[in-house]
Amino acid sequence: MRASAFLYPWDVVGDPDAARRIADLGVRQVTLASAYHSTRALTPRHPRHRIVTAEHSAVYYPVDPARWAGRALRPYPQRWTEGEDPFGAAAEALAGAGLEVHSWVILAHNTRLGAEHPGIRVRNAHGDSYPWAPCIAREEVRAYAVSLAAEAAVRPGARGTELESCGWYGLSHLSAHDKTGGVRLGGAGQYLMSLCFCPVCEAGYASLGADPGRLRSAVTGALEPLWAGAYNETARGREEEWAEVEGLLGAELAAVAAAWRNRIASAFRSEVVEAVRDAARERGGTDFRVLLHADPAPHRCGANAGTDPAGVLGGGPGAADGVVLACTGDAAERAAVLAPFGPHRAPGTVLAANFTVVAGMGGRPEALAEEAAHARELGAGELRLYHAGLASDADLAAVRGALSRLV
Q1: Neighbour count for residue 257 (Cβ, 10 Å)
Q2: Helix axes of 331-338 and 368-377: crossing angle, nearest 10 degrees
Q3: DSSP code of 156?
Q4: pTM (predicted TM-score)
């Protein structure tokens, strides 16, 4: 199976051995961050540092000033990795080791952008706003994300791209010193806490015949039992989650909320994908691959944005060349993620199974060969390995052994 390892530019820049070390794992490709959110990352083997603190969302290349002139929403430069173009430097080194480079672009997830522009944030039914989650129903957010995708995806040296958070973001977010786990919300509660009630979304609900005030009251009322501790132990799968949402809101209001959000997410995805394709064509990249980090349940939010498998892989306008699907979990979870996409695959469409291979982050690199073989039985043709830069030497040795058995 074709395998790609995720990397940050700082994993390669300043480490002359990094590119060869990654190639020796047996991967053919690297998915390299070109636009990424804030993080604090371990670098176990770098000769100059052990921790990199990316203080805010940033791009790892020099932006085109003409593209962003006069625009309030624009990408932020980084200052924690040396050089004017860390992505370009890392891509060149990786290509020199025989690796194909694809860009990795984060879209609807940017805490600094939300902090500096409060009006663009997702706003929940209680009136709380989420700085990390720009609302994709807002015209200015879509314009920003489309321009960012076109610029950050089609970098010199990149043969394709993987777009993360290409859809709705919501409550779930790995914040520093996070204290949101005291009440178990489950999938239904997460969805209800992620529904946006900014003025644009309220107008959207109204355009579909729903009173936004009634919907807001229904959401806050539905959440009350959860605050009291009435967690539904049985609603674990995606279908059960949505059935619980319908039970809590009522089928009519649940359908209106879903219709609005699905319409916006589909249009957003199509705009982004077409902008990337146009940018690739301008550079002469006719075989440039566009993949989305996705989930088969449209109501799910976050990095792996919920999608309609038929729409995202159907081959029509805005359809992607494939999806990257989170497969770290048991066999049932892999089947739940991979199987819905199978019937909708056009010829040449990619299903990439994404496995966490960092044991300290819950990964099981020692089981990679067996779990990847199961993913292949379910239709996956490629692997993604999260994350080669964060993994220990023992983790990488396990990956190397697994890939040698999967060839």
Answers
A1: 25
A2: 40
A3: T
A4: 0.96
The pair of three-digit structure tokens given for residue 181, joined into one six-digit string:
């786990």
Tokens of 78: 């980084």
pLDDT in tens, 31-67: 999 999 999 999 999 999 999 999 999 999 999 999 9
What is the rounded distance in angstroms from the CA atom of residue 94 to the CA atom of residue 273? 25
Rounded CA-CA distance 391/394 in Å is 8
Measuring CA to CA, which residue among 290, 214, 208, 318 is closest to residue 256?
208
Token representation of residue 385:
């390995």
Q: How far is Cα 205 from Cα 212, in angstroms, rounded to an integer? A: 6
Residue with the larger pLDDT of the pair 184 and 37: 37
* CA 112 – CA 132 distance, rounded (Å): 7
Pairing of β 129-134 and β 158-164: unpaired
Residue 247 identity (one-letter amino acid) = G
Which tokens in the block code for residue 132?
């990390």
Which tokens in the block code for residue 196?
């946006």
Roughly what angle, to the nearest 10 degrees, separates helices 393-406 and 368-377?
40
To which H or E segment does residue 219 belong? helix 212-227
CA distances from 326 to 238, 360, 384 (A): 14, 17, 9
The DSSP code sequence of 310-347 is HHHHSSSTT--SEEEEE--S-HHHHHHHHGGGGGGPPT
What's CA 29's distance to the chain center, in Å? Answer: 18
Q: Which two tokens stand for residue 142?
A: 């879509």
Of 286, 221, 279, the closest CA to residue 250 belongs to 221
| CA–CA dist 44, 26 (Å, integer) | 20
Distance CA 27, CA 18 (A): 13
Cα torsion 308, 314, 319, 324: sign: positive
Give yes or no for a contact between 398 and 372, defined as CB atoms under 8 angstroms apart. no
Interval 256-291: pLDDT, tens: 999 999 999 999 999 999 999 999 999 887 799 999
